[in-house]
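Field guide to reading this record: the first block holds the primary sequence, the second block holds the structure written as discrete tokens, and the final block holds curator observations. Each block starts with its own label. This record concerns Fe2OG dioxygenase domain-containing protein, catalogued under organism Solanum verrucosum.

BLOCK 1 — SEQUENCE
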Amino acid sequence: MVGKMIGSSASPNGSFTSAMTLTEEELTCVPKRYILPPSLRPNGAEYNTCLPIVDLSYLQHPLLRPQIIQEVHLACKKFGFFQVVNHGIPISVMKDAIDAASEFFNLPTEEKRHLLSSNVHDPVRYGTSLNHVKDKVYFWRDFLKHYANPTSTWLDFWPSNPTDYKKKMGNYTVAAQKLQEELMEVIFESLELNSNYLHEDIAEGSQVMAVNCYPACPEPDLTLGLPPHTDYGMLTIILQNHLGLQIMDRDEKWHSVPLIEGALIVQLGDQMEVLSNGRYKSVLHRATVNSEKKRISIASLHSLALGKKVRPASELVNEQHILSYKEGSFSDFLDFISGEDIVEAKYIDKLKINS
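BLOCK 2 — STRUCTURE
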């Protein structure tokens, strides 16, 4: 089984084994290729601190808005993370997106193989682990990634099978982009910037949908769905159907993110850390797996346009907060991960000028 996974899927004759395929084979143990070093395995030591939940409906009340801005400020500063409720995206739209994703991953491998790619620059790609051609150790995850904003530009590249994938995922994608624009105004306000700061750049920015499938795993204590990492962008909006996401707090303790009906998860990325000149930090997170359920998560990753450089806001650089980051772009990040192992190196560390 391990030998089947070593070949490159980039060539027509290369072999490819997805995590879904391994689950269908009803293995009783994970192949050696997936067993992480003890230091990287989930050790079960989780903390159940009350993680922040923000009710966005209060933003419409002038007297309550300052309270919500303060809640977001504290959540960003302490965790780089919060969950939102009453965010305006109907539960039916979210459920349709999860269903479309699940149907895609349930397709036979032959139906998905034409989307296989290990090139991180491709606008649509299907794969397993992080990069099934380069990874030294595999992660228990299959994924589909595709560009999304504006949807009209990218929709034709998305999977045509399942037949309703484009419609269902498209509806959610457009709603997530709109929500992201609203959230960015709130976050900028929490940094005491103008709420319309970079408004056009945000609206015209990059949106990548990372659609993830974490099948049930026979030995979840030996592997992960994704290793600890930060996202590259301004922020990420995550929809999940089961528990599995964990975040690390500033004290380096892992917290399992609870599943709240109708809620969406908001995480800050590297670009926000740079723009805020370190006032807010990108959140370190990972995906665990379980032995009973297949987990679907849909991460809507938002950054400025591919080549647009992000630098610290001039308003947030002063004698007390000296310039602490070099500028960087989404394109620079892609070049970085093409040659680096994200388990061993972090893009944000390349941009830091001062600790």
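BLOCK 3 — OBSERVATIONS
The longest strand covers residues 206-214.
Confidence is low (pLDDT under 50) at residues 1-14.
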